[in-house]
Amino acid sequence: MSSSEILLELGRAVYVTFGPLAGKLAVVVDIVNGSKVVIDGPGLGVERQVISTRRLELTKFRVAGFAKGMPQQALRKAIEDFGLTRRFQSAGLGRRIAKQQKREALTDFERFRVHVLKRKLGKAVRTHVNKNRKAILAAAK
Known about the structure:
With 141 residues, the chain is α+β, with helices and mostly antiparallel strands. The chain has two domains: 1-105, Roll (SH3 type barrels), CATH 2.30.30; 106-141. It is 45% helix and 23% strand. It contains five helices and five strands. The protein has helices at 72-82, 84-90, 92-104, 108-131, 133-140, and strands at residues 12-16, 25-31, 36-41, 46-52, 56-62. 15% of the residues are buried.
């Protein structure tokens, strides 16, 4: 499912990208107009509130069993039954965000070790390619 196929609709899980809620998941519970929606995330650390769609990243997940005007306890149960956080973390966007957070948490020495390992890998690849240049070019034909 490409991002152009994902629609902003009730029950759609969203990832907040900007503001005090940045980095949190929520569910669209109502659409105010074309640029604002009401989100809620009981159990996810998000209170029910109106937010601009520019601050949201749509996910491919739509909470099953969602109904408009659903109370927070029922929404919490629907989110838990759906396994939203587990599904999000295993999806591409969730994995990319986890990777970013892991890189941001590296210490100076760990960043240095990554740099050294990248240099070693590059040297190994260049050495292999240079030694086997004829065979690689012949296989490409």
